[in-house]
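[Q] Does anyone have a clean structure-token version of this?
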Amino acid sequence: MKRYIEIENIYAREILDSRGNPTIEVEVRTIDGGLGKAIVPSGASTGKNEACELRDNDKKRYNGKGVLLAVKNVNDIISKKIIGMDALEQATIDNYMNYLDGTHNKSSLGANAILGVSMAIAKAAANTLELPLYMYLGGVSGTTIPYPMMNILNGGKHSDNNVNIQEFMIVPKEVELFSERLRMCVEVYNELKKILKSENLSTGVGDEGGFSPNLRSDIEAIEYIMKAIEQAGYAGKFNISLDIAASEMYKNGKYNFWKTGETYTSEELIDFYKDIVKKYPILSIEDGLAEDDWKRLEKAY
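[A] Here you go.
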């Protein structure tokens, strides 16, 4: 007989995120005593085609960034429809919330409201079944958890320095235990701090906790990270992932690295990526081209 885990209560509240801005936290309880809490993340740079993060736009509160409308939508609308449903029916619940919203970008109820409820339900179901979340979501084959991608150097809109690329992340490889992966990342992060300090560079941090020194180039940022990996004793044991946030730099068909003055065409920027991928252990490049830059893609086909 299939188990039914009834959702007993859903409650949302406004809290502050790591940047000191309001965001929504949702708490879900099941009738069997399971509890799930979820806090919705928010980025500093967002694409125009992303789902709508509902903000209050009340300039008297948090400069308009309050999320009381999203909280109200959870507590007064979504909860009344979802309470009593089966927490194990994740896809059905998610689709139903999209139906309740009725817009293409979730601008009615707010993507932050919908996402908060969805994540909290998944956690409540896993908690009720006494399973770790990764195993609950992964099913019977869910035997591994994701590798950490630790953001250790910030540029772009995440900091006030002169580095253009928004995020430089390190990713450990060939290590089984997550606790060991995390330890390795922390040790490289601390080594990077020592190196920057020894060269009288700033160890202040950007929006997401990565260091944000003024450097001569984005390549120099990668070089410092490589040096930190080596001096921490992990040469060859890390990859690097980049979040370029290229849409923020795209104007009139070209990419303006506004912090250092370089300008690239799409082809030139792709060549830049090819060069660094050859030279450094780059695992992934996120948002490498702008969301509206389809010219290059059309040529490829």
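[Q] Thanks! Anything notable?
[A] The mean pLDDT is 92.
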